[in-house]
Design a protein that fits this description.
The complex is a heterodimer. By secondary structure, chain A is mostly helical. Chain A has seven helices and no strands. The longest helix of chain A has 30 residues. Chain B is mainly alpha-helical.
């Protein structure tokens, strides 16, 4: 069995999944993957939804994405063990070692803060790569196009400034 | 709250999560779970959860993510329009909040380049054992806590008010069908035309058959790192 799919097959499958999710046979809603984070944060920090307007606001979509996330984790786990055979505990990505530095501490600290601002940014905009870029642009939404452009431009600038040239093999 | 109260709170909120999804009418618990399973499997199977894929795109050394993303959007935009015309789906457009979209996009884009993940690919990375991403997710939980806590007093105002839920299809009126067709085809063509580059490490190469590996190693557009 092949251990990785080409990009075009991944794109076609992702389009089919989006169409199923949008349809009344699936979720009758867009696919999204960042509303679950405040939902889970509310649970973990013992916050009652009644006390926070934002938690009340995300109560239903957060639950939906919370369940979807469990599936995503499960789907990733099963695929990584049985198909791609990539499951192993690691802390340092090869690319970070080559293009940034060799320090585990540096990777961990940057990861924490990048995670922090990643979710802050997604919540500020009302969506992420899945909810805004994939699902939103599929609906030709102007909001999602603005978000997508803002993300891609900043991503490329950060990539240029943050990483060094690195030595390839 | 005490530890006992905390655990019963977590348990009751988890039960709520199940009940909301099961009764909300956006697919049963099982369907929603399966949407997630397929989503996670596609991300893992195409390897776009790897640091080298998103951070590699930020460095313009890997174009698998934009190629896959734009192809999926191109196909799905045309497909969704058809679904809606047939009465099998409807649009759910997110509000146009200029401040939130631009500031949020800047924070999101910079973080995505550094973490090398987005909120959809992150959980898949964690599920294959990546501890650095787990720490990123803990950061994300704190980010969401901070956002929730200061939503009314700060973030809601920063995001600004909504300028409606317009889309290209909406504003095209009678020409909606033609516009979505042009939009979809343009994105599909764009996805195919983006030069195919990849940033691969030894683990990626070990996944390939011998002939595929030889082909990639001799391809100048693919960068191999150790």
């Amino acid at each position: 069995m092949k251990r990785r799919l080409p990009w075009w097959l991944g794109g076609i499958l992702m389009a089919l999944l989006l169409l199923f999710t949008f349809s009344i046979f699936g979720g009758n809603r867009p696919l999204g993957a960042s509303t679950y984070v405040p939902y889970y944060a509310g649970i973990l920090f013992g916050m009652h939804p009644a006390d926070y307007t934002y938690l009340t606001k995300v109560e239903n979509p957060g639950a939906w994405e919370g369940v979807m996330l469990l599936g995503t984790f499960l789907g990733g786990l099963v695929t990584s063990i049985f198909i791609t055979k990539t499951f192993r505990f690691t802390i340092m990505p090869t690319g970070w070692k080559v293009y940034k530095n060799n320090s585990v501490l540096s990777r961990v600290i940057w990861s924490f803060f990048a995670g922090f601002f990643l979710i802050l940014g997604a919540r500020l905009a009302g969506g992420c790569t899945s909810g805004h870029i994939l699902s939103g642009m599929t609906q030709t939404a102007f909001s999602s196009m603005i978000f997508g452009a803002s993300v891609i431009i900043t991503l490329l600038i950060t990539g240029k400034l943050f990483y060094k040239k690195g030595e390839t093999k | 709250m005490s530890i006992g109260e905390y655990f019963s709170f977590v348990a009751s909120r988890t039960e709520d999560m199940y009940n909301i999804v099961q009764n909300e009418g956006h697919g049963s618990f099982f369907i929603v779970l399966m949407i997630g399973v397929v989503f996670g499997a596609i991300i893992q199977y195409t390897r776009v959860d790897k640091f080298e894929k998103i951070a590699g795109f930020a460095m313009l050394k890997d174009t698998v993510v934009p190629k896959m993303l734009f192809l999926a959007i191109g196909i799905a935009s045309i497909g969704l329009y058809a679904e809606i015309q047939l009465g099998y789906a409807s649009y759910h457009i997110k509000p146009l909040i200029i401040g939130g979209l631009i500031i949020g996009g800047i924070l999101f884009g910079a973080s995505m380049a550094i973490l090398g993940k987005c909120p959809g690919t992150g959980p898949v990375s964690i599920s294959e054992g990546r501890i650095d991403v787990l720490i990123g997710a803990i950061g994300g939980i704190f980010g969401a806590f901070f956002f929730t806590k200061y939503y009314d007093s700060f973030f809601k105002i920063l995001a600004g008010k909504s300028h409606g839920n317009e889309s290209l299809i909406n504003v095209s009126g009678d020409y909606g069908a033609i516009m979505v067709l042009l939009f979809g085809i343009a994105l599909i063509v764009f996805a195919i035309m983006i030069p195919h580059r990849e940033l691969l490490d030894e683990a990626d190469l070990s996944q390939l058959e011998a002939d595929e590996r030889a082909e990639i190693e001799s391809n100048g557009k693919f960068e191999i790192i150790k």
